[in-house]
Protein backbone atom coordinates (compact mmCIF):
# COMPACT_ATOMS: atom_id res chain seq x y z
CA UNK A 1 0.00 0.00 0.00
CA UNK A 2 1.24 3.50 -0.83
CA UNK A 3 1.84 5.27 2.47
CA UNK A 4 3.36 8.47 1.15
CA UNK A 5 2.55 11.77 2.81
CA UNK A 6 3.31 15.19 1.31
CA UNK A 7 4.16 18.06 3.63
CA UNK A 8 3.70 21.68 2.61
CA UNK A 9 5.34 24.30 4.83
CA UNK A 10 4.42 27.77 3.64
CA UNK A 11 6.71 30.33 5.29
CA UNK A 12 6.46 34.05 4.71
CA UNK A 13 9.10 34.06 1.97
CA UNK A 14 9.40 30.40 1.07
CA UNK A 15 7.65 27.06 0.68
CA UNK A 16 9.36 23.91 1.85
CA UNK A 17 8.03 20.58 0.58
CA UNK A 18 8.85 17.09 1.74
CA UNK A 19 7.50 13.73 0.62
CA UNK A 20 7.73 10.86 3.14
CA UNK A 21 7.42 7.18 2.22
CA UNK A 22 6.06 5.95 5.58
CA UNK A 23 6.01 7.00 9.26
CA UNK A 24 9.05 4.92 10.22
CA UNK A 25 11.39 6.40 7.60
CA UNK A 26 12.77 9.79 8.69
CA UNK A 27 14.57 10.51 5.39
CA UNK A 28 12.14 12.00 2.88
CA UNK A 29 11.82 10.64 -0.68
CA UNK A 30 12.19 14.17 -1.92
CA UNK A 31 12.46 17.68 -0.58
CA UNK A 32 11.95 20.95 -2.34
CA UNK A 33 12.44 24.60 -1.57
CA UNK A 34 10.80 27.51 -3.34
CA UNK A 35 12.45 30.65 -2.01
CA UNK A 36 12.65 34.42 -2.35
CA UNK A 37 8.94 34.33 -3.19
CA UNK A 38 7.50 37.75 -4.11
CA UNK A 39 11.10 39.04 -4.15
CA UNK A 40 13.80 39.25 -6.81
CA UNK A 41 14.79 35.97 -8.49
CA UNK A 42 12.38 33.48 -6.91
CA UNK A 43 13.56 29.93 -7.49
CA UNK A 44 12.56 26.28 -7.08
CA UNK A 45 14.90 23.42 -6.22
CA UNK A 46 13.77 19.79 -5.93
CA UNK A 47 16.10 17.10 -4.59
CA UNK A 48 15.74 13.33 -4.24
CA UNK A 49 13.36 11.17 -6.29
CA UNK A 50 13.17 14.13 -8.70
CA UNK A 51 16.00 16.56 -9.34
CA UNK A 52 15.25 20.04 -10.59
CA UNK A 53 16.69 23.50 -10.16
CA UNK A 54 15.48 26.64 -11.89
CA UNK A 55 14.23 30.18 -11.57
CA UNK A 56 10.52 30.82 -11.20
CA UNK A 57 9.05 33.67 -13.27
CA UNK A 58 9.92 37.09 -11.73
CA UNK A 59 7.77 38.03 -8.71
CA UNK A 60 6.26 34.52 -8.45
CA UNK A 61 4.33 34.10 -5.21
CA UNK A 62 3.26 31.08 -3.19
CA UNK A 63 0.52 29.90 -5.57
CA UNK A 64 2.79 29.90 -8.64
CA UNK A 65 5.48 28.05 -6.68
CA UNK A 66 3.03 25.41 -5.44
CA UNK A 67 1.64 24.78 -8.92
CA UNK A 68 5.12 24.60 -10.42
CA UNK A 69 6.23 22.06 -7.77
CA UNK A 70 3.17 19.83 -8.35
CA UNK A 71 3.66 20.05 -12.10
CA UNK A 72 7.36 19.05 -11.89
CA UNK A 73 6.65 16.12 -9.53
CA UNK A 74 3.92 14.61 -11.71
CA UNK A 75 3.26 10.92 -11.01
CA UNK A 76 5.41 10.87 -7.82
CA UNK A 77 2.51 12.61 -6.09
CA UNK A 78 -0.11 10.05 -7.17
CA UNK A 79 -2.00 8.04 -4.52
CA UNK A 80 -0.90 10.15 -1.56
CA UNK A 81 -2.14 8.89 1.79
CA UNK A 82 -2.38 12.40 3.16
CA UNK A 83 -1.11 15.96 2.97
CA UNK A 84 0.14 17.82 6.03
CA UNK A 85 0.11 21.62 6.05
CA UNK A 86 1.86 24.06 8.32
CA UNK A 87 -0.66 26.58 9.63
CA UNK A 88 0.78 29.43 11.62
CA UNK A 89 -2.12 30.70 13.74
CA UNK A 90 -4.60 28.42 15.48
CA UNK A 91 -5.91 31.20 17.76
CA UNK A 92 -8.27 30.02 20.49
CA UNK A 93 -9.94 27.70 17.94
CA UNK A 94 -7.27 25.04 17.34
CA UNK A 95 -5.11 23.62 20.13
CA UNK A 96 -3.68 20.62 18.28
CA UNK A 97 -3.25 19.20 14.77
CA UNK A 98 -6.60 18.76 12.99
CA UNK A 99 -8.07 17.04 9.92
CA UNK A 100 -9.43 19.78 7.69
CA UNK A 101 -12.92 19.58 6.16
CA UNK A 102 -15.18 22.37 4.82
CA UNK A 103 -16.30 23.39 8.29
CA UNK A 104 -12.75 23.58 9.69
CA UNK A 105 -11.65 25.51 6.63
CA UNK A 106 -14.28 28.15 7.38
CA UNK A 107 -13.19 28.40 11.03
CA UNK A 108 -9.59 28.69 9.92
CA UNK A 109 -10.42 31.54 7.53
CA UNK A 110 -11.55 33.70 10.48
CA UNK A 111 -7.97 33.66 11.84
CA UNK A 112 -6.29 35.19 8.77
CA UNK A 113 -6.19 38.77 10.13
CA UNK A 114 -4.10 37.52 13.09
CA UNK A 115 -1.28 36.29 10.84
CA UNK A 116 -1.60 38.28 7.62
CA UNK A 117 1.71 37.14 6.09
CA UNK A 118 1.04 33.47 6.82
CA UNK A 119 -2.50 32.20 7.40
CA UNK A 120 -3.85 33.39 4.02
CA UNK A 121 -1.09 31.43 2.20
CA UNK A 122 -1.52 28.43 4.52
CA UNK A 123 -5.22 28.49 3.58
CA UNK A 124 -4.39 28.86 -0.09
CA UNK A 125 -2.25 25.71 0.12
CA UNK A 126 -5.07 23.80 1.84
CA UNK A 127 -7.70 24.94 -0.65
CA UNK A 128 -5.52 24.27 -3.68
CA UNK A 129 -4.59 20.77 -2.47
CA UNK A 130 -8.20 19.88 -1.68
CA UNK A 131 -9.03 20.84 -5.25
CA UNK A 132 -6.06 19.10 -6.92
CA UNK A 133 -5.93 15.99 -4.70
CA UNK A 134 -9.62 15.17 -4.30
CA UNK A 135 -10.36 12.80 -1.43
CA UNK A 136 -6.84 12.91 0.05
CA UNK A 137 -7.01 13.77 3.79
CA UNK A 138 -5.56 17.19 4.62
CA UNK A 139 -4.13 17.89 8.05
CA UNK A 140 -3.34 21.30 9.57
CA UNK A 141 -0.44 21.45 12.05
CA UNK A 142 -0.36 24.68 14.03
CA UNK A 143 2.63 26.82 15.06
CA UNK A 144 0.68 27.89 18.14
CA UNK A 145 -0.01 24.36 19.46
CA UNK A 146 3.32 23.83 21.27
CA UNK A 147 2.87 27.12 23.14
CA UNK A 148 -0.40 26.11 24.84
CA UNK A 149 1.69 25.73 28.01
CA UNK A 150 2.86 29.38 28.20
CA UNK A 151 2.59 30.67 31.74
CA UNK A 152 -0.18 33.16 32.51
CA UNK A 153 2.43 35.82 33.31
CA UNK A 154 3.91 35.28 29.87
CA UNK A 155 0.70 35.17 27.83
CA UNK A 156 -1.21 38.08 29.36
CA UNK A 157 -0.67 41.62 28.12
CA UNK A 158 -1.03 44.53 30.52
CA UNK A 159 -4.33 45.59 28.93
CA UNK A 160 -7.95 45.43 30.21
CA UNK A 161 -8.55 41.78 31.20
CA UNK A 162 -11.85 41.71 29.34
CA UNK A 163 -9.89 42.07 26.07
CA UNK A 164 -8.46 38.64 26.86
CA UNK A 165 -11.80 37.20 27.98
CA UNK A 166 -13.88 38.59 25.15
CA UNK A 167 -11.48 39.18 22.25
CA UNK A 168 -8.82 36.46 22.81
CA UNK A 169 -6.18 39.19 23.09
CA UNK A 170 -3.18 37.30 24.48
CA UNK A 171 0.27 36.22 23.48
CA UNK A 172 0.25 32.93 21.52
CA UNK A 173 3.82 32.25 20.35
CA UNK A 174 4.68 30.77 16.93
CA UNK A 175 7.22 28.44 15.27
CA UNK A 176 5.92 25.87 17.76
CA UNK A 177 6.21 22.92 15.37
CA UNK A 178 9.88 23.81 14.95
CA UNK A 179 10.39 24.13 18.72
CA UNK A 180 8.65 20.80 19.33
CA UNK A 181 11.06 19.08 16.92
CA UNK A 182 14.15 20.91 18.22
CA UNK A 183 13.35 20.11 21.87
CA UNK A 184 13.10 16.38 21.06
CA UNK A 185 16.23 16.47 18.93
CA UNK A 186 18.24 18.47 21.48
CA UNK A 187 17.18 16.07 24.26
CA UNK A 188 18.25 13.11 22.12
CA UNK A 189 21.66 14.70 21.50
CA UNK A 190 22.09 15.48 25.20
CA UNK A 191 21.12 11.91 26.07
CA UNK A 192 18.28 13.16 28.27
CA UNK A 193 14.49 12.95 28.35
CA UNK A 194 12.83 16.06 26.90
CA UNK A 195 11.08 16.50 30.31
CA UNK A 196 14.52 16.98 31.86
CA UNK A 197 15.62 19.79 29.53
CA UNK A 198 15.58 23.53 30.24
CA UNK A 199 16.45 25.34 27.02
CA UNK A 200 16.62 28.74 25.40
CA UNK A 201 15.97 28.29 21.69
CA UNK A 202 16.15 30.87 18.90
CA UNK A 203 14.39 30.05 15.65
CA UNK A 204 15.94 32.58 13.27
CA UNK A 205 14.58 32.39 9.73
CA UNK A 206 12.74 35.01 7.75
CA UNK A 207 10.40 35.14 10.73
CA UNK A 208 12.38 35.04 13.98
CA UNK A 209 11.42 34.12 17.52
CA UNK A 210 12.95 32.77 20.70
CA UNK A 211 11.43 30.55 23.40
CA UNK A 212 12.06 29.45 26.95
CA UNK A 213 11.50 25.70 27.40
CA UNK A 214 11.09 24.45 30.98
CA UNK A 215 11.07 20.67 31.49
CA UNK A 216 10.46 20.19 27.76
CA UNK A 217 7.47 22.57 27.64
CA UNK A 218 7.21 26.08 26.25
CA UNK A 219 6.71 28.62 29.07
CA UNK A 220 7.53 31.89 27.30
CA UNK A 221 8.09 32.99 23.72
CA UNK A 222 8.93 36.27 22.02
CA UNK A 223 6.01 36.34 19.57
CA UNK A 224 2.62 37.58 20.68
CA UNK A 225 -0.95 37.96 19.47
CA UNK A 226 0.51 37.98 15.96
CA UNK A 227 3.93 36.99 14.53
CA UNK A 228 4.91 40.68 14.53
CA UNK A 229 6.05 40.90 18.16
CA UNK A 230 9.51 40.15 19.49
CA UNK A 231 12.73 39.97 17.51
CA UNK A 232 13.72 42.04 14.50
CA UNK A 233 12.92 39.79 11.50
CA UNK A 234 13.45 39.77 7.73
CA UNK A 235 10.81 42.40 7.03
CA UNK A 236 8.93 42.61 10.36
CA UNK A 237 9.72 45.16 13.05
CA UNK A 238 9.43 43.04 16.21
CA UNK A 239 8.84 44.93 19.49
CA UNK A 240 7.90 48.57 19.09
CA UNK A 241 6.11 51.16 21.20
CA UNK A 242 2.45 51.02 20.06
CA UNK A 243 2.53 54.83 20.36
CA UNK A 244 4.60 54.79 17.15
CA UNK A 245 1.45 54.01 15.16
CA UNK A 246 -0.28 57.21 16.24
CA UNK A 247 2.94 59.14 15.78
CA UNK A 248 3.25 58.05 12.15
CA UNK A 249 -0.33 59.08 11.52
CA UNK A 250 0.39 62.56 12.85
CA UNK A 251 3.82 63.02 11.31
CA UNK A 252 3.32 61.44 7.88
CA UNK A 253 -0.44 61.04 7.65
CA UNK A 254 -0.12 57.25 7.33
CA UNK A 255 -3.36 55.29 7.72
CA UNK A 256 -3.51 52.34 10.09
CA UNK A 257 -3.36 49.95 7.12
CA UNK A 258 -0.32 51.73 5.66
CA UNK A 259 1.58 51.65 8.94
CA UNK A 260 0.74 47.97 9.57
CA UNK A 261 1.88 47.08 6.08
CA UNK A 262 5.18 48.95 6.63
CA UNK A 263 5.71 47.18 9.97
CA UNK A 264 5.06 43.75 8.41
CA UNK A 265 6.66 44.13 5.01
CA UNK A 266 9.21 46.94 4.95
CA UNK A 267 10.73 46.93 8.41
CA UNK A 268 13.14 44.55 10.17
CA UNK A 269 16.42 43.76 8.38
CA UNK A 270 14.98 45.11 5.15
CA UNK A 271 13.92 48.44 6.60
CA UNK A 272 17.02 48.97 8.73
CA UNK A 273 19.45 48.11 5.92
CA UNK A 274 17.55 49.72 3.07
CA UNK A 275 18.89 46.75 1.13
CA UNK A 276 17.41 43.31 1.77
CA UNK A 277 15.50 41.05 4.15
CA UNK A 278 17.95 38.24 3.42
CA UNK A 279 20.79 37.63 5.89
CA UNK A 280 23.06 36.14 3.21
CA UNK A 281 22.81 39.31 1.14
CA UNK A 282 23.40 41.48 4.22
CA UNK A 283 26.47 39.57 5.41
CA UNK A 284 28.00 39.83 1.91
CA UNK A 285 27.16 43.55 1.69
CA UNK A 286 28.55 44.26 5.16
CA UNK A 287 31.83 42.62 4.16
CA UNK A 288 32.01 45.16 1.32
CA UNK A 289 31.43 48.07 3.69
CA UNK A 290 27.65 48.60 3.31
CA UNK A 291 26.67 50.75 6.31
CA UNK A 292 22.97 49.80 6.23
CA UNK A 293 23.81 46.09 6.29
CA UNK A 294 26.15 46.58 9.27
CA UNK A 295 23.47 48.53 11.14
CA UNK A 296 20.73 45.97 10.46
CA UNK A 297 22.85 42.99 11.56
CA UNK A 298 23.98 44.79 14.70
CA UNK A 299 20.42 45.62 15.81
CA UNK A 300 19.28 42.11 14.90
CA UNK A 301 21.96 40.46 17.07
CA UNK A 302 21.43 42.82 20.01
CA UNK A 303 17.70 42.11 20.02
CA UNK A 304 18.19 38.32 20.07
CA UNK A 305 20.62 38.65 23.00
CA UNK A 306 18.20 40.92 24.87
CA UNK A 307 15.33 38.50 24.27
CA UNK A 308 17.38 35.53 25.48
CA UNK A 309 18.16 37.44 28.63
CA UNK A 310 14.46 38.25 29.20
CA UNK A 311 13.37 34.65 28.51
CA UNK A 312 15.94 33.37 31.00
CA UNK A 313 13.69 34.86 33.71
CA UNK A 314 11.48 31.74 33.42
CA UNK A 315 14.27 29.16 33.81
CA UNK A 316 16.01 28.05 37.03
CA UNK A 317 18.90 26.62 35.00
CA UNK A 318 19.82 26.54 31.31
CA UNK A 319 20.99 23.23 29.86
CA UNK A 320 21.73 24.75 26.46
CA UNK A 321 21.21 27.77 24.23
CA UNK A 322 20.10 26.38 20.88
CA UNK A 323 20.09 27.99 17.42
CA UNK A 324 17.85 26.82 14.58
CA UNK A 325 16.13 28.16 11.40
CA UNK A 326 17.85 29.40 8.22
CA UNK A 327 19.96 32.05 9.99
CA UNK A 328 20.37 30.14 13.25
CA UNK A 329 21.67 27.04 11.45
CA UNK A 330 23.85 28.65 8.81
CA UNK A 331 25.07 32.11 9.84
CA UNK A 332 28.10 31.49 12.10
CA UNK A 333 29.04 35.20 12.44
CA UNK A 334 25.49 36.06 13.52
CA UNK A 335 25.54 33.40 16.27
CA UNK A 336 28.89 34.68 17.45
CA UNK A 337 27.68 38.30 17.59
CA UNK A 338 24.45 37.41 19.41
CA UNK A 339 26.31 35.61 22.17
CA UNK A 340 28.93 38.37 22.44
CA UNK A 341 26.10 40.90 22.88
CA UNK A 342 24.76 39.02 25.96
CA UNK A 343 27.51 40.41 28.11
CA UNK A 344 26.52 38.92 31.47
CA UNK A 345 26.96 35.38 30.19
CA UNK A 346 30.50 34.37 29.49
CA UNK A 347 29.97 32.32 26.33
CA UNK A 348 33.11 31.04 24.68
CA UNK A 349 32.52 29.61 21.24
CA UNK A 350 34.84 27.18 19.53
CA UNK A 351 35.28 29.15 16.30
CA UNK A 352 36.16 26.05 14.30
CA UNK A 353 33.02 24.25 15.50
CA UNK A 354 30.91 27.39 15.00
CA UNK A 355 32.12 27.68 11.41
CA UNK A 356 31.19 24.10 10.65
CA UNK A 357 27.85 24.44 12.47
CA UNK A 358 28.63 22.17 15.41
CA UNK A 359 30.12 18.79 16.28
CA UNK A 360 28.08 15.54 16.12
CA UNK A 361 25.95 16.77 19.04
CA UNK A 362 25.62 20.23 17.52
CA UNK A 363 27.88 21.81 20.16
CA UNK A 364 29.63 25.03 19.11
CA UNK A 365 30.86 26.18 22.55
CA UNK A 366 34.16 25.36 24.21
CA UNK A 367 34.25 22.98 27.18
CA UNK A 368 33.62 25.01 30.36
CA UNK A 369 31.48 27.62 28.57
CA UNK A 370 27.68 27.58 28.97
CA UNK A 371 26.57 25.05 26.33
CA UNK A 372 25.57 26.43 22.91
CA UNK A 373 24.25 24.15 20.18
CA UNK A 374 23.10 24.30 16.55
CA UNK A 375 20.19 21.92 15.99
CA UNK A 376 18.69 21.95 12.48
CA UNK A 377 14.92 22.03 12.62
CA UNK A 378 12.52 19.87 10.63
CA UNK A 379 9.04 21.27 10.79
CA UNK A 380 8.31 18.94 7.86
CA UNK A 381 9.14 15.76 9.77
CA UNK A 382 6.99 16.85 12.71
CA UNK A 383 4.09 17.71 10.38
CA UNK A 384 4.40 14.34 8.62
CA UNK A 385 4.28 12.44 11.93
CA UNK A 386 1.16 14.33 13.06
CA UNK A 387 -0.43 13.66 9.67
CA UNK A 388 0.25 9.90 9.88
CA UNK A 389 -1.08 9.84 13.43
CA UNK A 390 -4.34 11.61 12.59
CA UNK A 391 -4.94 9.48 9.50
CA UNK A 392 -4.36 6.29 11.50
CA UNK A 393 -6.71 7.48 14.27
CA UNK A 394 -9.50 8.21 11.78
N1 LIG B 1 24.37 30.20 4.62
C1 LIG B 1 23.63 31.16 5.14
N2 LIG B 1 24.21 32.21 5.79
C2 LIG B 1 23.48 33.20 6.31
N3 LIG B 1 22.14 33.25 6.27
C3 LIG B 1 21.50 32.23 5.67
C4 LIG B 1 22.19 31.13 5.08
N4 LIG B 1 21.28 30.27 4.56
C5 LIG B 1 20.06 30.82 4.81
N5 LIG B 1 20.19 31.99 5.47
C6 LIG B 1 19.13 32.93 5.88
O1 LIG B 1 18.02 32.28 6.46
C7 LIG B 1 16.86 33.10 6.24
C8 LIG B 1 15.70 32.21 5.76
O2 LIG B 1 15.45 31.27 6.75
P1 LIG B 1 14.31 30.14 6.60
O3 LIG B 1 14.17 29.48 7.92
O4 LIG B 1 14.66 29.27 5.45
O5 LIG B 1 13.09 31.06 6.18
P2 LIG B 1 11.52 30.97 6.34
O6 LIG B 1 11.19 31.73 7.57
O7 LIG B 1 10.98 31.60 5.10
O8 LIG B 1 11.17 29.50 6.49
C9 LIG B 1 17.26 34.17 5.23
O9 LIG B 1 17.53 35.39 5.90
C10 LIG B 1 18.55 33.61 4.67
O10 LIG B 1 19.42 34.63 4.22
C1 LIG C 1 5.53 32.51 12.28
C2 LIG C 1 6.59 32.92 11.33
O1 LIG C 1 7.17 33.98 11.47
O2 LIG C 1 6.89 32.06 10.33
P1 LIG C 1 8.05 32.22 9.22
O3 LIG C 1 9.34 32.19 9.93
O4 LIG C 1 7.87 31.04 8.32
O5 LIG C 1 7.82 33.53 8.54
MG1 LIG D 1 10.20 29.47 8.62
UniProtKB/TrEMBL annotation:
Function of the protein: Catalyzes the formation of acetyl phosphate from acetate and ATP. Can also catalyze the reverse reaction.
Residues that coordinate or bind substrate: 86
Pathway stated in the Swiss-Prot or TrEMBL entry: Metabolic intermediate biosynthesis; acetyl-CoA biosynthesis; acetyl-CoA from acetate: step 1/2
Location of the protein in the cell: Cytoplasm
Main localisation: cytoplasm
Keyword ATP-binding set for record: yes
Assembly description: Homodimer.
Cofactor note: Mg(2+). Can also accept Mn(2+).
Gene3D superfamilies in alphabetical order: 3.30.420.40
Cofactor(s) needed by this chain: Mg(2+); Mn(2+)
Highest taxon of the lineage: Bacteria
Catalytic activity: acetate + ATP = acetyl phosphate + ADP
Protein name: Acetate kinase
Site feature location: Transition state stabilizer: 175, 236
Pfam families: Acetate_kinase
Keywords: ATP-binding, Cytoplasm, Kinase, Magnesium, Metal-binding, Nucleotide-binding, Transferase
Active site: 143 (proton donor/acceptor)
Positions contributing to Mg(2+) binding: 9, 379
GO terms of molecular function: kinase activity
Gene: ackA
PANTHER family for this protein: ACETATE KINASE
Family that this chain belongs to: Belongs to the acetokinase family.
Binding site for ATP: 16, 203-207, 278-280, 326-330
E.C. numbers: 2.7.2.1
Source species of the chain: Thalassolituus hydrocarboniclasticus
